[in-house]
Amino acid sequence: MSTDTATAATGKTTVARTVTDVLQPRNALLAGMLGIGLAAAGDWTGLLWGFLGALCAGLIPAGYIEWERGRGTWGDRHVVDRTKRAPIFFVILGSIGAGSVVMVLGNAPGGILVAMLALWVMTIGLLAVNTVWKISVDSAVASAVVALLAVVHSPWWLAAYALTVAVCWSRVALGYHTVAQTVAGAALGAATTVAYAFG
């Protein structure tokens, strides 16, 4: 490999690493759930419900992953070994479920609750597929956030799918997933909007 080729490969990896870190699920969910909560409530109280959603769907699971990393269970947040991912999905399901119960008891706006339930169902789908195939969770979350924002705010949010494409590219560039695995994740994420068709 020539020096120029090696430099280009290193640059590509650096960009991919930056993209995957900046747009990781906890960050995407923090921004997305705040936006969904705001739209659902129509005022600043929606931000509080959105933060609860982000806490349960993204921040608590991310904290769990960091805790397990500290114990030496996994090498990094990506958990590249598909067979070790099940506990993460169960933590996500439990956390989203608990958050949804709080929302019901607190009379949260319907839109944020529907979004939480959609993410809960998506997580079941991810868990089911993960038992046989390493579907991309990062791509699924990035896609779900954009799709849900487009439904609750404006179709113009679909332009943000450029960010989902960037996430898919970064996962492939880093060697964590194949193109098919990222596309499948993105498709499952987009399917969360089906919840609004029946909500």
The major sheet is characterized as: none
Total of helices: 9
Radius of gyration: 17 Å
Number of strands: 0
| Percent helix | over 70%
How big a fraction of the residues is strand?
Answer: under 5%
Distance between the termini: 55 Å
What does this structure look like?
The chain is mainly α and 199 residues long. 75% of the residues lie in helices and 0% in strands. The protein has helices spanning 3-22, 25-41, 45-70, 86-105, 110-130, 137-152, 161-173, 179-190, 194-198. The model has no long low-confidence stretch (mean pLDDT 92).
Secondary structure layout plus pairing:
Blueprint: H1 3-22, H2 25-41, H3 45-70, H4 86-105, H5 110-130, H6 137-152, H7 161-173, H8 179-190, H9 194-198
Helix pairs in contact: 1-7, 2-3, 2-5, 2-6, 3-4, 3-5, 4-5, 5-6, 6-7, 6-8, 7-8
